[in-house]
Amino acid sequence: MLMLQRYTAVCGHLAYSLEEYQKAMLDFAEQSDGNEADRTAEGFAKMFGTYFPPEFSITEGNAWMSTLNNSVQYISVIRPGEKVAKLVKRMHYVSFVGMFRSDLFEGLCVGHAPKKCKICGKWFLTTNARHTKYCGGYAPGDKLHRTCRQIGNLKGREQRELADDHPIIQIYEKRLNTINRYVKRGTLDADLAEVMKKLAKDKELRAKSDVAYAKGAYEKEMEQAALLAEAKIHI
Question: Where does the source fall among the domains of life (predicted)?
Answer without folding.
Answer: Bacteria
